[in-house]
Amino acid sequence: MSMRLFVAIELPPEHVVALASVGRQAATASDCRPTAPRNLHVTACFLGDVDEASLGKLDDVLRTTASRVKPFELSFRDVTNAPPRRLPTMVWGNYDGAGFAGLAAAIRAAAAPFAPAMPPEKEALAHVTLVRFRDARPLPEPPQPAALAPFTAREIVLFESELLPGGPVYTERARYPLA
To answer: How does the average pLDDT of the chain come out, rounded?
Structure first.
């Protein structure tokens, strides 16, 4: 049996509150449903379907990988329609962080043997999905939250994602402290 997994950085509560509010505003303006506040996170690596039998080995490599990465700061930048340079299908809250791309690449390399359904590699962009649309569409510029203080990413979290008719449910499987 397989599980749909991803590795993420959780947001501080004040970021969740502010971005959930922006997501609700953007969703209302676009006639769709925002991401539930409990599901807001910065995805470091989407693993896709992973065989449950590989979970122990995956746990080991993620723990080792996290122990080799130093905590780093993430600074909120802005809210944009996404993905960049295409007709939007989402609204993102974007972050800047010097350590993010390295963390994402390290997770990807370590997890690859256990995640055969991992999507092809693409540029690691630190972002939170606030709204997702079924089809690409022109969108008005999204609202911006008040200033959000930078925060330090001190751990990564392995989540299982279950896709349900009412929206996805994310279940924490493990936490890994950064070095």
So the answer is: 95
